[in-house]
Amino acid sequence: MKQILCGTLGAVVLAGTLSVTSLNIEANTVPNPMAIPNPMGIPNPMAPTQSNAANPTESEYEISAEFGGLPVSEGVDTTYYLCTACHSVQTFAQLRVTDERWDYLWDWMIKEQGMADYGEENKEIILSYVKRHFSSER
Length: 138
Ligand code: HEC
What we know:
By secondary structure, this protein is mainly alpha-helical.
C-alpha cells in the first residue's frame, strides 16, 4: 500500500513537473498574433519600407538651413554647391529612387541635362550622399 502510494505520488509529482515544463516551453513559443507570418523569411516586396513610412532616415539627421534644407551628413556641402546651380534642392531631394537609378541619373545629368562631369571624387561623394538620404532602398 505504501509502495503504491509512493508510486502514485511520484507519478503525480512527475506529471506535475512535466506539465509545468511543457507549459513553460509553450509560453515561450506562443506565436505573436500581431506578427505577419513569414515562415520562410522571404522579404515582402509590398511591405512599406522604413524610408517610405514616415521617412525616419531624415529625422535622424539635422536639417540644414545653410544648405537649402538638405539633411546634414557627409557630402551635404558638395551636393548643395554642385547640384543647385541649375535647379533647386527639391528637384532631387523629393525623389526616392533605387541606387541603380541614382547611378543612371548621374550619367543622364551629364549627357542630357548639360551638367559638367564633376569627376570621380565628387561623383562618389554626391552619389553616396543622395543614396543615403533619397533612396527607396533604405
Ligand atoms: C547644368 C545644370 C544642372 C546641374 C549642375 C545639375 N542639374 Fe539636375 N537637372 C538639370 C536639368 C535641366 C534637369 C531637367 C529639368 C528639371 O527637372 O528641372 C535636371 C533634372 C534632375 C533630376 C530629375 C528630377 C526628376 O524629376 O526626375 C535629378 C534627380 C537631378 N537633376 C539631380 C541632380 C543632381 C544630384 C545634381 C548634382 C550632382 C544636379 N542635378 C546638377 C540641370 C542640372
